[in-house]
Amino acid sequence: MTWTLDTNSARAALDIASEYADTALLNHSVRSYAFGARYAADHGLEYDRELFYVAALLHDLGLTAPFDSHTLPFEEAGGHVARVLTAGLGWPADRRARAEEIIVLHMRDDVGAAEDAESHLLQVGTSADVSGLRLAEFDPSFTARLLAAHPRAGFGPVFTALVEDQAQRKPDCAAAGYVAGGAAARIAANPLDA
Question: Per the database record, which ranges form the HD/PDEase domain (predicted)?
Answer without folding.
Answer: 21-97
